[in-house]
């Protein structure tokens, strides 16, 4: 999990560098027209986070990018990244491009540069050296929080679940469709907001570890204390980018995944 401040971005590299996948890109939310104008000419946050990280890993092309939903803190740095690291395939929730003009414009530019942009719905599966099972949404949507692409994968013998900005309503839908779903590691929804990670959801999934992406001293006060209390009640180890920086697991031959490790940028 890359530290992109108040946003989301995760990178998964298959063993022996056989596949490079980026899940969301980070980006800055705009709250008014003036803020958008100011940001238009400013440098992308990816230039200080995602792009140098990808270069440090020797990534020259992203085999696929998954945008969980059409909010700027999840797709806002997409074009900046694509200009430095070409993207082969982009997956996004069906309906998001029609509902969000900014996202639609980004897709048009990516298509011009040769990226294959594909809307996707559950129960599709993205196959490859690392495969992803799409669990939600199962119908066309507008790209909001509860329309986030929710998907699972197996890495080094551990079961991961990625939830975008999924909130309580979406969590209930996932539990209803997959009542037997159990995982090892959870990417906590919506930066640890109190609108996500209900006690029922966390207890049902029963993860051993949870990953939270949030900006240091962010205006939303993410992660919320109520969410942290829920994780603590279930004795789940949780890690936060705002306090611990980048969170990563290393694949080790004949050993599988390492324990969680951290890279905190020095002041």
Automatic annotation (TrEMBL):
One of its GO terms (cellular component) is membrane. GO terms for biological process: establishment of competence for transformation. SMART domains: Lactamase_B (SM00849). Residues 6-216 form the Metallo-beta-lactamase domain. CDD domains: ComA-like_MBL-fold. Pfam families: Lactamase_B. InterPro entries: ComA-like_MBL, Competence_ComEC/Rec2, Competence_DNA_uptake, Metallo-B-lactamas, RibonucZ/Hydroxyglut_hydro. This is Metallo-beta-lactamase domain protein. It comes from Enterococcus faecalis ERV63.
């Amino acid at each position: 999990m890359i530290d992109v401040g108040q946003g989301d971005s995760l990178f998964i590299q298959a063993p022996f560098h056989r596949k490079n996948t980026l899940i969301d890109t980070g980006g800055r939310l705009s709250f008014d027209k003036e803020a958008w104008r100011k940001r238009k000419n400013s440098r992308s946050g990816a230039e200080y986070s995602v792009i140098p990280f990808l270069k440090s890993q020797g990534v020259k092309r992203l085999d696929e990018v998954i945008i969980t939903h059409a909010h700027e803190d999840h797709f806002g740095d997409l074009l900046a990244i694509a200009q430095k690291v070409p993207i082969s395939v982009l997956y996004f929730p069906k309906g998001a491009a029609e509902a969000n003009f900014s996202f639609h414009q980004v897709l048009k530019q990516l298509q011009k540069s040769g990226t294959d942009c594909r809307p996707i719905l559950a129960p599709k599966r993205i196959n490859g050296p690392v495969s992803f099972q799409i669990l939600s949404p199962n119908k066309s949507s507008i790209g909001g929080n509860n329309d986030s692409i929710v998907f699972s994968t197996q890495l080094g013998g551990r079961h991961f679940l990625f939830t975008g900005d999924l909130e309580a309503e979406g969590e209930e839908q996932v539990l209803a469709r997959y009542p037997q779903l159990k995982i090892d590691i959870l990417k906590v929804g919506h930066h640890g907001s109190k609108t996500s990670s209900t006690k029922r959801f966390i207890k049902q999934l029963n993860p051993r570890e949870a990953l939270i992406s949030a900006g240091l001293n962010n205006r939303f006060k993410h992660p919320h204390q109520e969410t942290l209390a829920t994780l603590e009640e279930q004795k789940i180890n949780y890690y936060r980018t705002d306090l611990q920086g980048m969170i990563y697991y290393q694949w080790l031959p004949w050993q599988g995944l390492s324990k969680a490790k951290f890279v905190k940028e020095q002041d």
